Amino acid sequence: MRFVIVTGMSGAGKSSVLKMLEDVGYFCVDNLPIPLMKSFVRLILNGKHKEIALGIDVRSGFMLKELDEVLHAMKRAKFPYEVLYLDCSPEVLIKRYKETRRIHPLSGLERVDKGIELERKELEFLRKKADVIIDTSQLLIRELKTQIYKIYVNDEEFSNFFVTLLSFGFKYGIPVDSDLVFDVRFLPNPFYEADLKQKTGNDEPVRNYVMACDAAVQFLDKLDDMLSFLIPYYIAEGKNQLVVSIGCTGGKHRSVTLVNELAKRMTDSEYGLKTEHRDIEKDD
Questions:
Q1: Which of the four pLDDT bands, split at 50, 70 and 90, describes residue 108?
Q2: pLDDT digits over 135-149, tens only?
Q3: What torsion, rounded to 10 degrees, do the Cα atoms 212, 214, 217, 220 define?
Q4: What is the distance between the alpha carbons of residues 46 and 42, in angstroms, rounded to a whole number?
Q5: pTM value?
Q6: Which domains does the chain have, with CATH numbers?
C-alpha cells in the first residue's frame, strides 16, 4: 500500500497533483478534516484501495496543529505514509493569484503577500517532514506531471534538488530568478555568418560552429567542474533549486548551444534537470 499526503503552499499545484494521481488510479481525497484522519486511516486498512492520496492544506485552520500528533501516532503504529510538499516562490504565487483573481485563504483583507508569508510559517513543520519537495515556480504542468509520474507511478528515485539551465539574451535583460549568471559573448558569434544567422543553437551547424572554438570547450569544462563543486553545498544549505543562466547577445546561438552541451554533461546527475531557452523565438 502507498499512502501519500499531498500538501504545500496554496497555488503551488496541489489540486493539479491530486488530479494527476487520480488519473493513474490513486484514490484521492482533498481537504479532509484532520480530526477524521484516524478514522480515514482505519478505513484504508480495511478497504481495497492500495494507492491513496490525501490533500491537506492551510484551509484546515487551527486544526492543522493537530496534524503533527496524528502523524506521530501513525508513525508509532508503523503505518507507512509519505509527505509530498509543493513549494513555490512568493513572486510566482502572487502572480498566479492575480491571474486567477482568487483570494488567498489567509490574506483576509490584507494583501496576498501577507497571507503567503503567514501560510509558509504555518506549514513549516510539514515541510520539515516532507519526503519529497517539488518547487513548481519554474515548472510547466507537463513537467510537473513528468516528475509526479516518475515518483509515484514508476517509483523512480527523486532528488529534492532541481537545476534549471536557462539560455537568454542580454538585450532582453537578465532573468530575475537567476542564481548564477554567465556571459558567453566572448565567443565568436554565429549571427554574423550568413548561413547561420537564421538558425539557432538547436541546429547542428550552429552547434558545430560554437563548439569549434577551444574557449567554448574550456568554458564548459570549468563550468561543469564548478557546478559539481557548488551543488552539494547548496543542497547542504537546504536549497532545493538552482537556476543557472547563460547569456549571449540575442539568446539564440551561443547561449543555447552551451546550455544544451552542459545539459548533456549533467544528464546522469542525481538531481532533477531541465533546460529552457527563454529568448530563442524572439526577433533579433
A1: low
A2: 898 888 988 898 898
A3: -130
A4: 6
A5: 0.66
A6: 2-152 (3.40.50.300), 162-277 (no CATH)
